[in-house]
Each structure stands twice: as C-alpha cells, then as structure tokens.
User: Fold this.
Amino acid sequence: MKKVALVFILFGWLGSVLAARPPKLTLLAPQDGASWKLGSRQTISWSVVPEIEATMYITLWGYNSARQVIPFGVLGEMPCKAGRFLWQVGNCPSRKVNPGDYFIRIWFFQGAEKIIAGNASPFHITSNWIIMN
Assistant:
C-alpha cells in the first residue's frame, strides 16, 4: 500500500515539474544562410512542443548603418498551432526592406513569460532583378 502511494506521489510530482517547464519553440525556416528573393512568397515555419493555444508573433530584424541588429517590424501573427506563416518577402508594413542580411524572430507569451526563437545567423534577401553583362 505504501509503495502504491509513493508511486502516485512521485508521478504527481513529476507531472507538476513537467507542466511547469515552458514549451520549446524552434524556428524551422528560414534557415541560417538561406537566400530568399525580394517579392517571392516564402514560408516562415516553426514548431512548438508541446502544442499550445497562443498567438505567434513574427518579426523581421535587420542591420542599421552601424551594423547593429534592429527590429524592422511585425510581419504578422498566427496561432502557434498553425506552424507556418506565408510571407511575401520584403512586405514589412513599418519599413522598406532592401536586399541584405536579415533575421526572423518569433515569439509567444506563456502566461507572463515570453518564449522566443529566431535565426542565429542571418538569412539573405536578394534582389529580384537579373543583371546581364
């Protein structure tokens, strides 16, 4: 009888510990070093484990003239469960996007905690123009 009670207590404690851990968020695309053409449609994708009910915020970050990483603006919002956001590359309501190096940052709130993921290294936005010599 004591063993059964101990097992229930142990599983109850383990369940509460696991329930307190924040979900794991991973940016799947764009991958570091990817090249996306300005004006093309590309999928920004992520995974959240375990799956949760929350809103994912997708933002674009780039470099300023001093080579500091700064926010360019919000690209959109989706339910975390969607796992993807279709983006017309370069469409950023708050700022003009030129060819260059950029980062995607995604996040959601789990209670008061902000869970964030993004590129470790930049991806590239290239011109949609073909230059012939």
In short: The domain at 24-126 is CATH 2.60.40.10 (Immunoglobulin-like). DSSP finds one helix and nine strands in the chain. The mean pLDDT is 88. The longest strand covers residues 69-79.
